[in-house]
Write a structure and sequence with these properties.
N-terminal domain of MutM-like DNA repair proteins, four-stranded antiparallel sheet, 6 helices, elongated, binds zinc ion
């Protein structure tokens, strides 16, 4: 599943290729993904308008047309964009095809259909993202205060921190030396501080690695939305921990999701 760093890189690529272009034809290929896909009549408000910018908020992609309405796309589990010349044959699992004034075609494909396409306005409230100067230890401490839920469920709660998925939440907890199944309220102030820095560091490193692997010019394709990520604990169950070289990475289930951790390095 694309996480925040992948979405970030994709937005850079989309913005570079599409800013200044405009949608001249909105061709819906299926009526619905996670929710209904707007039809060409509803999309009339966005067609023949210049794409002013493309921005990311949490894991959502916003196409800004300089008006009150925006095109909001969420990739879900398997969503991705294709940018092709207009004569290209139709892609598999294509749900929306946008013919652009430049002569290109932007297609949204999604095999598992957990993605979404909406026409909406800017969100009223923006949830804190795991970036320096945005996520602070004070904020995290307030969120954790007396909470019984696990710390992993808390940092993955999209109403508390936007954009931290299973991979980076697992890696941040490993970096901070905290077991994922500890109750959020049991964390000491020093642990909260460490965890806050770790969340920021893992996202920052992944964004830098993503940008580096695509050079200055990331492309709009599957590769941009699915980085191969080197992880310490995520997807490493039963492997020897790289840090202590002693314990095998263990797994617990938290909120239905697998959560890997090192029983020696994480307390
Ligand atoms: Zn270890």
């Amino acid at each position: 599943m694309p996480e925040l760093p992948e979405v970030n890189t994709l937005v850079t690529a989309l913005s570079r290729r599409l800013r200044g272009d405009s949608i001249i034809a909105w061709q819906r290929r299926s009526p619905k993904l996670r929710g209904p896909i707007p039809d060409s009549t509803e999309a009339g408000v966005l067609t023949d308008r210049k794409i002013v910018d493309i921005r990311r908020i949490a894991k959502s992609i916003y196409f800004d047309f300089g008006c009150s309405q925006l095109l909001k796309v969420h990739l879900g589990m398997t969503g991705y964009f294709l940018l092709t010349s207009e004569s290209c044959p139709e892609a598999k699992h294509a749900h929306l095809m946008l013919r652009l004034a430049s002569g290109q075609m932007l297609t949204f494909c999604d095999s598992r259909r957990f993605g979404s396409i909406e026409i909406t306005s800017w969100p009223d409230k923006v949830v804190v993202e795991p970036f320096k100067s945005k996520l602070t230890a004070t904020y995290l401490a307030t969120a954790c205060n007396s909470r019984q839920c696990s710390i992993k469920a808390l940092i993955m709660d999209q109403h508390i921190i936007a954009g931290l998925g299973n991979i980076y939440a697992s890696e941040a907890l490993f970096k901070a030396g905290i077991r994922p199944d500890r109750s959020a309220g049991s964390l000491k102030p020093t642990e909260i501080k460490k965890l806050c820095s770790a969340c920021i560091a893992v996202i920052d490193a992944a964004i830098k690695a993503g940008n580096a692997s695509f050079g200055d010019k990331p492309e709009i394709d599957r590769g941009t939305t699915h980085f191969a990520i080197e992880t310490c604990v995520y997807d490493q169950q039963n492997q020897i921990c790289q840090k202590c070289q002693k314990s095998k990475i263990a797994m617990v289930r938290i909120s239905g999701r697998s959560s890997c951790f090192c029983p020696t390095c994480q307390k």
